[in-house]
Amino acid sequence: MKKKDIQTGLEKEIRKRAKWDFFYICVIALLLSYISVITKVDLFEQLYFFSRQHEHWEMDEITLIVLWCGLGGIFYAYRRVQDLRALLQEVSGKAFFDQVSQLPNRVYSLECLTQMLHQAERLRFRAAVIFIDLDNFKMVNDTYGHAKGDLLLQMFGERLRHSVRKGDIVGRLGGDEYLVLLELTDENELAPVLERIRSIQDEPYRLDENDLIFRFSAGIAIYPDDGETATDLLKASDIAMYHSKVTRTGQIERYTDHMTETLYARYQLESDLKLALQNKNFYMEYQPQLSLKNEQIVGYEALIRWELRGKQVPTTQLIQIAEDTGHIEEIGLWALYQALEDAQSFLQANQRLAVNITSRHFWKSDFVYQIERALSFYEFPPHQLVLELTESALVSDIFDDIRQKVTALRELGILVAIDDFGIGYSCLGRLKDLPINCLKIDQTFTHALVNSERDWYVISTLVNMAKHLNFLIMAEGVESKEQLDLLHQIGCHMAQGYYIGQPATLTHLVAQTSSL
Ligand code: C2E
Ligand code: MG
Ligand code: MG
Fold first, then answer.
1. 127 near 183, Cβ under 8 Å?
2. What is the DSSP string of 184-203?
3. Is the C-beta atom of 372 inside 6 A of ligand 1?
4. Could you tell me which of 367, 415, 502, 515 has the fewest CB atoms within 10 Å of its CB?
5. How many CB atoms within 10 Å of residue 486?
6. Which of 202-206, 355-359, 473-477 bottoms out in mean pLDDT, i.e. has the lowest?
7. pLDDT value, residue 15
C-alpha cells in the first residue's frame, strides 16, 4: 500500500468542489454569452468604441498588462494547487502511516481490515488476521535507548513486510504491536507465509555491534470461523497472541474458544496478585542443601509461596505472572527481605541462604545497590548470601554489564550460583569469564542419571568440566537414595531435593532447629 493510494475525506471534498466550481464558471460564461447575444450587445464592438473614445489611455498597454496578470494568475493558482496537493499528501501520510516503520498505522490498518472483510464477504474468500507483539521490547529501549529501539521496530517491520505476499498488508498498531492481514483465496498459501513470519525470529538484529535475537508472540484468527467483524477478529487474534506469550511456544497460535476462558482465569489471577502484593499475602519456605562431602546441611534455598482461596498457586506460575505484569522486582525484593529476616531465626553461622533472582530483576541498573541495602538493613553477612541466577540472566548482549554486576556482587562477598544449569542456552565458555561460585544442575539431569549409562556419562562429563573450571556443583531435585549415591560417585559437591528435605515453613524450621 502506497501513500499516494490514500485519499482523505478532505481531499475528496476539495476535488469535488473544484469540479463544481469549473461547472459553475462554464455555466456563467455560457449564460453571459447567451444574454449578450439575446440583448444584441456586441462586446467586442463596445470594447472597440471604448478604446477609440479613450485613445489617450494607451489601451494596448493596458490590455497587455491585463493579459499578463491573467496568465500570472493562472500560473500562481496552478502552483498553489500543487502545494495544496503536497500538503494533503503529507497530512494523509501522517494520519495513516506510522512515522517510525512507515507502515500503515492503527487507524489505517483497521480500515484495511474492514475493507478486506467486505471483499471477503462479497467474493466468498477467507481471510487471516495475525496479531504480533514483540517480547521484552522495553528491555531494548532501556538498554540501548529509544533511537535504537525505533531502529529495531523499523527493521522488524521491514522483515515482516518481506515475509508476506504481495498485496498482503502489514501494519503497526502502535508500541511493539504489529498486524498482518492476509487474503486466503488459496488456503495452501497460509502455512508457508506463517512459517516465513515465524522464522523472522531466527535471524539476529545488529544493534551497537551486538547481534540481538529478538522474539515475538503472535496469534492468528481466521474469517469467518473465529469472527465476522474487524473488532471480533482483532480481539480473537489478540487473545491468541496473549496465549502464545503466556505459554511461550514461539509459534503463531491459532485462536480457540478455550483461550478466552484461560484469559479470564489469568486476568483474575493478575488482579488477585495485585491484591496479594498490597496485603503482602506471601510467605517463604526453605529447602535444605546438603554437602556430599561431610553430609552436613550447608544452606537453605528460599522459595516463595502464595496461597489463594485455600489453594497454593504454583510458584513458577506466580513468578511468570509477576514477570509479565511487571511486578517481579517488587516480589523479588519482598522475598529477599523476608528471607533475610527469617534467616535470623534458623540460619547457622556456617550455613548459607540462597535467594532466587529473575533475569529481569538482575538486569535492573541499581540491582547491586538494592542487594547491598537489604544486607545492611539486616546486618546480614554477605558471605552467607547466595544469589541464584538463571542462565537466561547471562544470555544477553550486555555481557560487559553482566560481568560488572557479578564482579561487584563478588567483591561485596556475596556468592553467585547459576540455577537450572544445562537447560538454558549459555555455555561453559561464557560462564568461565564470570566469577561464579556454583552451578546448580537442573533436576531433569538428576532424574535422567538413573535411567541409562549414557545419561550418567553425559552428566559426569558435565560435572568434570565444571569442576575443571573451579565451579562448585550442586544437583537439584534429588528424590532417591539411588540418585544421591550416583551423584556421590560422579563427584558432585552438594545436593538438594525432596529426598534430602522438603521445603519447610519458618515455623517448622524453627521448631526443628530448637528440638536439636
Ligand atoms: P528453583 O530455584 O530451581 O527451585 C527449585 C524448585 O524445585 C522448587 O520449586 C522446589 O520446590 C522444587 N524441588 C525441590 N526439590 C525437588 C525434588 O526433589 N523434585 C522435584 N520435582 N522438585 C523439587 P518451586 O518452589 O515450585 O519453585 C519453582 C521456581 O520458582 C524456582 O526454581 C525458582 O526459579 C522460582 N522461585 C521460587 N521462589 C522464588 C523467589 O523467591 N524469587 C524468585 N525470583 N524466583 C523464585
Ligand atoms: Mg533456585
Ligand atoms: Mg533450580
1. yes
2. ESSGGGHHHHHHHHHGGGGS
3. no
4. 515
5. 19
6. 202-206
7. 76
Least confident segment among 134-143, 392-401, 406-415: 392-401
Q: Which ligand is nearest to the CA of 304?
A: 1
Query: Around 116, how many Cα atoms within 13 Å sit in the side-chain half-sphere?
Result: 25
**CA 19 → CA 15, 23, 24, 75, distances in Å?**
6, 6, 9, 19
Whole-angstrom Cα distance, residue 361 to residue 331?
10
- Locate the ligand 1 atom nearest the alpha carbon of residue 420 and give its number: 3
Please indicate whether residue 303, judged by its CB atom, sits closer than 6 Å to ligand 1. yes
At 156 the pLDDT is 94
Mutate to test the pocket of ligand 1, among 286, 305, 356 (most ligand atoms within 8 A of CB): 356
- 396: confidence class by pLDDT, cuts 50, 70, 90: low
Identity (one letter) of the amino acid at 329? E
pLDDT at 2: 47
Confidence of residue 425 (pLDDT cuts 50, 70, 90): low
Residue range 112-123: mean pLDDT, rounded: 94
| Cα 496-497-499 angle, rounded to 5 deg | 120
Task: Compute the distance between CA of residue 85 and CA of residue 11 in angstroms, rounded to an integer.
Answer: 8
Query: Rounded to the nearest 5°, which phi and psi values hold at 356?
Result: -80, 140
Identify which of 449, 491, 500 has the alpha carbon closest to the alpha carbon of residue 472: 491
pTM: 0.70
Which pLDDT band, with edges at 50, 70 and 90, does 424 fall under?
low
Check if 264 has its Cβ closer than 6 Å to any atom of ligand 1. no
Q: How far is the CA of 303 from the centre of ligand 1 (A)?
A: 6
What is the whole-number distance in angstroms between the Cα of residue 260 and the centre of ligand 1? 29
386 lines ligand 1 (CB under 6 A): no
User: Residue 307 contacts by C-beta under 8 Å, 6 or more apart in sequence?
Assistant: 281, 283, 313
Q: Is the CB of 498 under 6 A from ligand 1?
A: yes
Question: How many Cβ atoms are within 10 Å of 401's Cβ, its own excluded?
Answer: 13
Closest CA to 340 of 355, 362, 356, 359: 355
Q: Is the CB of 335 under 6 A from ligand 1?
A: yes
Residue 432 CA, distance from chain mean position: 31
Cell representation of residue 106: 492503527
Is the minimum distance from the CB of 356 to ligand 1 under 6 angstroms? yes
Residue 306 pLDDT exceeds 80? yes
Q: What is the pLDDT of residue 202?
A: 85
**Residue 128 identity (one-letter amino acid):** A
